[in-house]
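User: quick one, fold this
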Amino acid sequence: MSQDADRTTTDQLELQDPVTRYPKISPPAEALPGTGLDVEMTPKADLGEHSYRGTGRLTGRKALVTGGDSGIGAATAIAFAREGADVVITYLPQEEKDAAHVAEIIRAEGRTVETIPGDLRDKAFTADLVERTVKALGGLDILVNNGGKQVATDGLASITDEQLEATYDVNILAMFRLTRAALPHLKAGATIINTTSIQAYQPAPKLLDYASTKAAINNFTKGLAEELAPQGIRVNAVAPGPIWTPLQPSGGQKPEDLPEFGQSTGLGRAGQPTELAPAYVFLASPESSYVVGETLHVNGGMPTP
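Assistant:
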């Protein structure tokens, strides 16, 4: 283990006990302000910067990862770079510090990285984002629709119209718009990977709006996969379980629930972002050439249909 008890330098290819690969965390019952920053989390999340070892599976690919400044998006962007891909990451302007850190890691791998701040709720931003990506990287092979919004409530009666519309705008409507904009640039062999959630299958009463968008993402993924498969473009999804990211302490969970976060899984602990990255790498690489319309579960042992 590294000096930080919540991180590891043992790479993902070594044989290890998944129960003890990471310790069971008990985050303080305190909320982070705003959308939360990775640099402000207690304990820190592991993005794989010290442990992910690439094997060249994405050499020469060009990827766009939304929400790539922290959490699952950041771990995926780092893994893509270590597999040989150039990457564009998007994030909210207030998350610049996290984005700069991820970009520094990617540049250290000798890969091209572009950081593009903006709000996925902004239709003009999503319409322009793909063109800016293609200009920065010289093309687009991999689209990862990962950016998301999650706010825990006391139930349906406490979900305001503003929150409901914001959650749907970010989680599913932006996915439609961004994917639509990307289609003219995607060729046979390209991949689209959408981030859904265990909440699509086990919706928590405190997350009704969020959970319903994740179910919609599953449906979108499967329908789009059927449409694009004949063109040689594969569409799949990853469904994370409880993963320790800034999304959780910045409103995604009630503060009083944070100390027990992830401990009800089969492995008895929350997952770390770097444990998701191999799933995205697999779905982005030619190794998964016969995998279409799949939702790949990475949830520590939470039963799903």
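User: anything notable?
Assistant: The first strand starts at residue 62 and ends at 65.
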